[in-house]
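ok, trying the design again with the full structure, not the truncated one.
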């Protein structure tokens, strides 16, 4: 699997993020079905799909003349784990800040 920074880089583009969102919401789709996620040409969609595929975010299977794309679960699970780990850090920091504010109020400051 690709490093997290590569996954985030692939998802940082608005069009690529829209493609992944569509695939998550609607399930696997062909490149042609994804053309309406942005106001760009079919070759541009293909280039975005290539970036997502190389980053490991989406997988491709061949069905006759069509290329069918779906979201790869492993990279999204890795992103989710990273977010959850960092969420715990921020929640802990905010809880400590809240306690400090309450302490200051009790002391009359």
């Amino acid at each position: 699997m690709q490093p997290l920074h590569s996954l985030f880089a692939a998802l940082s583009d608005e069009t690529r993020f829209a493609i992944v969102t569509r695939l998550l919401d609607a399930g696997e789709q062909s490149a042609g079905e994804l053309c309406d996620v942005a106001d760009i040409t079919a070759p541009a969609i293909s280039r975005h799909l290539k970036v997502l595929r190389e980053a490991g975010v989406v997988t491709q299977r061949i069905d006759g003349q069509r290329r069918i794309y779906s979201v790869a679960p492993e990279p999204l699970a890795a992103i989710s784990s990273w977010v959850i780990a960092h969420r715990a850090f921020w929640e802990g920091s905010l809880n400590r800040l809240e306690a400090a504010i309450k302490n200051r109020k009790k002391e009359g400051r």
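Keeping the full-length input from now on. The first strand starts at residue 29 and ends at 30.
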